[in-house]
Task: inverse folding
């Protein structure tokens, strides 16, 4: 595998100081994870450690900005990966040993070296099993096609056919348990990320999340849109919660 090719994806839940404690507690409960010891110069980072396998979720306490999400791409050589990303249209923001980037549409992501290889197993609940298995990139129509091409070229992940073809979604499947879904928004608002969870029983899973403090904001035939206690949007879907390792 190339030194610049991602071998794993992690999602970073970024919380303001006001949101941090309740956001971390909620997502640890939702995923059945334990929270690692804090790390970083200001103890701003932690990992949501799954019961079995390696982590796909991490958390960060922000000093400014709004709560949200960003993506970590695990590579062998972050500097080489960053140079390649710039050639593809990204912008380098900072180098802290991990390299902070922005995609052509303005989505923040990082290149990191942390080695992981064991997909976490779905967690069993009274209503079935669930797993965080997808990061959705929400992009407006003006940037959508270029952003899809950027992420496919950057990651080398295989595009998976969607129904209907060339509709509002495009999916990229990589070697780790998190896959990428690119969603074309109806308007050119600021782009962003959100998490998707798969569940054996979506209704039961949604009810469990509501008991933990989530709010349902929309229902669709195959997924439910919710916000966590910090106001961060995510979805619970009807997909089977099994690892999607290529």
Result:
């Amino acid at each position: 595998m190339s030194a610049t090719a991602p071998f794993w994806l992690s999602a970073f839940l970024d919380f303001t100081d006001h949101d941090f404690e309740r956001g971390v507690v909620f997502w640890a409960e939702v995923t059945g994870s334990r929270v690692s010891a804090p790390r970083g110069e200001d103890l701003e980072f932690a990992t949501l450690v799954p019961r079995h396998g390696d982590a796909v979720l991490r958390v960060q306490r922000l000093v400014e900005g709004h709560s949200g999400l960003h993506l970590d791409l695990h590579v062998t050589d972050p500097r080489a990966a960053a140079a390649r990303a710039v050639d593809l249209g990204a912008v380098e923001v900072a180098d802290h040993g991990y390299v902070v980037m922005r995609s052509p549409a303005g989505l923040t992501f990082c290149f990191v070296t942390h080695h992981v290889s064991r997909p976490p197993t779905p967690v069993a609940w009274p209503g079935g099993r669930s797993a965080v298995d997808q990061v959705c990139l929400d992009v407006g129509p003006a940037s959508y096609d270029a952003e899809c091409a950027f992420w496919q070229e950057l990651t080398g992940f295989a595009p998976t056919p969607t129904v209907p073809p060339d509709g509002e979604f495009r999916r990229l499947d990589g070697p780790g348990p998190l896959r990428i879904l690119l969603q074309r928004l109806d308007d050119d608002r600021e782009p962003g990320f959100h998490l998707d969870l798969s569940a054996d029983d979506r209704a039961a899973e949604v009810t469990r999340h509501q008991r933990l403090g989530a709010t349902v904001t929309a229902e669709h035939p195959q997924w439910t849109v919710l916000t966590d206690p910090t106001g961060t949007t995510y979805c619970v879907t009807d997909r089977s919660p099994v690892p999607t390792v290529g």
In short: The mean pLDDT is 94.
